[in-house]
What we know:
Blueprint: H1 16-29, E1 39-44, E2 47-50, E3 66-69, E4 75-77, H2 88-95, E5 101-105, H3 108-123, E6 132-136, E7 159-165, H4 175-184, E8 190-193, E9 197-202, H5 205-227
Parallel strand pairs: 7-8
Antiparallel strand pairs: 1-2, 1-5, 2-3, 3-4, 5-9, 6-7, 8-9
Helix pairs in contact: 2-4, 3-5
Amino acid sequence: MEAGDQLVISDDPNHPANHICTLCRNFYGLGWVTGTGGGTSIKHGSNIFIAPSGVQKELMQPTDIFVMDFESRAYLRKPASLKPSACTPLFLAAFDKGAGCCIHTHSQWAVLVTLLVEQDAIQNGKNPATSCFEIERIEQIKGIPRGRNKEGMLGFFDRLKVPIIENTAFEEDLTHSLETAIEKYADSYAVLVRRHGVYIWGDNVEKAKTQAESLDYIFRLAVEMKQLGLKWVQ
């Protein structure tokens, strides 16, 4: 037994440590967290449960999970043989805005969407660094909330906007850009990272998972629409 094991060992499948492992196995099957990439974190009470860095996500066990105190940012549990996730500062940025769960994926569809937006910006003489992904009149948009402190979900005729930030050599160096994007696009529950993937968060695990699934569907659809010459917005 390691110090703090009581924080991650539970028979409850919805315990954050168990839930993270289940989610990561599912995400691996979707191709979202291949090659140890990606990660998931859950805020439960005053504690933050975080998947470790550099592990095969489909094989992860509850005893691999790191636990941090939200207020002090001090680790309450650090598995001796594992490294903390490089995504941790970005997860915390979402939690600071009230999120209960944050998911980071390396979805190919998310990556391709960022490249298509970049291509469109360059072809239209715009700065790719200030562009965002926009799409409308797609039914699955209804799976995305209207925004922070707003009631209900987006509608069929609403336009979904997801900001895009530029990638960096090290994950933690994305933190400032992500925080800036969260402030600028206050109603967004996701931030795309060009040539990298996407960060998605929700008020709780269920909402974050639903939004991640909805967005990945939309990203894939957008890529295929582009191949067919169909516009994302009217």
